[in-house]
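Lab manual, section 2.4: Encoding a predicted structure.

Procedure: take the sequence of the chain (114 residues), apply the prediction step described in section 2.3, and record the output as structure tokens. A sample record is shown.
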Amino acid sequence: MNWKEFFKEGKELVLATCSKDGRPNANIAISLGFVDDKLLIADCQMETTIKNLRENKKICIIAGYYRLRGSVEIHSSGKYFDLCVQKNKEYTVKNAVVVNVEEVFDLDKVKRIL
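Recorded output:
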């Protein structure tokens, strides 16, 4: 199975961020899938996560037995924001979090795959 299956739309993700002073944070979010080879996540209730990402653009995400590392762009309008609003009817979207995938690691096989 392709690692992207674990990050596809509707999958539960664990997001790990860190503030600029080194305070870690973890949160759960639902994937909105890949757009332009970037992972899309809607910020509806992620106050600390967004604060951390504004200070430190790096993120680590766990889905199944895969760890994804990357950097983020935060959009409060535009194409990615509109997609988040369109795909998320249950909550009010505050921001679109767009993850540029830099590394994928298979935790079960203990090996980097991207």
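Check your result against the sample. The longest helix spans residues 47-55.
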